[in-house]
Amino acid sequence: MRIDVLTLFPDMFESPFSSSITKRAIEANILDIHLTNFRDFSFDKHKHVDDSPFGGGAGMVLKPEPLYRAMRAVLEQTKKYERNRRVLIMDPSGSIFSQKKAKELAAFDQLIFICGHYEGFDARIYSLADEAISIGDFVLTGGELPAMVITDAVSRMLPGVLGDSEYASTDSFYDGILGYPQYTRPRAFEGKEVPAILLSGDHKKIREWRHEQALRLTREKRPDLLQSARLTKEDRAYLASLEM
Fold first, then answer.
1. Rounded distance, CA 153 to CA 103, Å?
2. Catalytically annotated residue among 4, 85, 86, 92
């Protein structure tokens, strides 16, 4: 997968993209990340990318010309991806990012992130994107952090990134519910024992126990997720038994 980020602050991405899972994905040639500073596409000698809003108001608004020119340059360089790309604008008005969306985006060959700053975008910039996306109902200084979050979540879904196809499927939210509780050594710690089922060696029963615990945790902490989770008849029966 190729990821392009249009940003005024490419240096912000150096540390997050040079460590952990993302770094491994890049080194394995599974992920190819390119950063474009759209200030380089400004028309004037002072490299202005923003201006005061028509009609008055506080703050500055990103101008359309630099972003249009930057986007056209990226699209020209990446023509081979045009049949399977998605352009995302980081914006609080967008749909809320989720694990379901991460899996959906992982199916594209190219993602392009448009990261804003200041008081927002000139409204004509939105037509560059296929969709607006947000990571939550709060305001950040710019779109760089959301782009990093989405890149991290999507990269986990790419084949070969985690080294074991089961890892991603056991993450919280992968199937619409939270992850199950996990334990490691020591077997006993401050009077708290590891559940005996995990020491039984019966892998079928362990899988069943873990799934039930995931359902239990979801019911207790995020019951809203159960409204859209893919539940079997057995899942529903187990959840009903918890009500008794």
1. 9
2. 92
Of 119, 152, 208, 235, which residue is the catalytic one? Answer: 119
Token output for 218 = 């979801």
**Distance, CA of 97 to CA of 101 (rounded, Å):** 6
pLDDT tens for each residue of 74-90? 999 999 999 999 999 99
* Secondary structure letter of residue 202 according to DSSP: -
- Judge whether 10 counts as a catalytic residue: no
Please choose, from the candidates 36, 9, 32, the residue with its C-alpha nearest in 3D space to the C-alpha of residue 22. 32
Q: Is residue 44 among the annotated active site residues? A: no
pLDDT at 239 over 60: yes
- Active site (annotated) includes residue 64: no
Give Cα separations from 195 to 45, 192, 199, 201 (angstroms). 67, 9, 7, 12
Q: Please name the amino acid found at residue 40.
A: D
Catalytic residue chosen out of the listed positions 109, 152, 171, 212: 171
Measured distance CA(243)–CA(89) in Å, rounded = 43
Active-site residue, selected from the candidate residues 85, 86, 156, 210: 156
Reported pTM: 0.87
Q: What is the share, in percent, of the chain residues with pLDDT greater than 70?
A: 95
Name the residue among 231, 236, 6 with its Cα closest to residue 113. Answer: 6
Q: 84-119: per-residue pLDDT in tens? A: 999 999 999 999 999 999 999 999 999 999 999 877
User: How large is the average pLDDT for residues 140-151?
Assistant: 96
Amino acid at 106: A
30: helix, strand or coil = coil
Instruction: Based on the residue annotation, tell me whether 66 is a catalytic residue of this protein.
Output: no
Length of the chain: 244
- For residue 175, what pLDDT is reported? 74
